[in-house]
């Protein structure tokens, strides 16, 4: 269900954020993202994958830690691929080429440092 907007996620005046108050945004075929809490140094986002969805290989200067909240994913980082399922986690070093292939529908919880300004809506 699409509710709210990611502009609603700008919560500079509070340290708490309620999931129901944040909407999903479509970010690719079979991919939706919800920006959760963040400040200038860190950002958390939830990414939902439909069956077979692909997180295209990419790189960014941010360090990323991710938790497989649900589902099964083939995660590739710097040429190494592992199949991960709920409860598993991984770290992506700065500038490492990485991507994901969804095997069973699921959700990744991503944390970036510093924050991903490119994920924020225009001011």
TrEMBL record:
* Gene3D superfamilies, per database record: Jelly Rolls
Q: Where is the Cupin type-2 domain?
A: 46-112
Spell out the InterPro entries in the cross-references. Answer: Bacilysin_H2HPP_isomerase (IPR052535), Cupin_2 (IPR013096), RmlC-like_jellyroll (IPR014710), RmlC_Cupin_sf (IPR011051)
> What is the name of this protein?
Cupin domain-containing protein
């Amino acid at each position: 269900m699409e509710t709210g907007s990611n502009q609603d996620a700008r919560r500079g005046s509070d340290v708490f954020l309620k999931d129901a108050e944040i909407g999903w945004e479509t970010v690719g075929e079979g991919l939706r993202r919800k920006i959760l809490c963040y400040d200038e140094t860190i950002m958390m986002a939830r990414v939902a994958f439909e069956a077979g969805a692909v997180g295209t290989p990419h790189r960014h200067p941010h360090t990323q830690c991710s938790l497989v909240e649900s589902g099964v994913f083939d995660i590739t980082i710097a040429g190494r691929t592992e199949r991960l399922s709920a409860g598993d986690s991984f770290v992506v070093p700065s500038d490492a080429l990485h991507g994901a292939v969804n095997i069973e529908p699921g959700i990744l919880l991503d944390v970036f440092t510093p924050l991903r300004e490119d994920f924020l809506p225009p001011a």
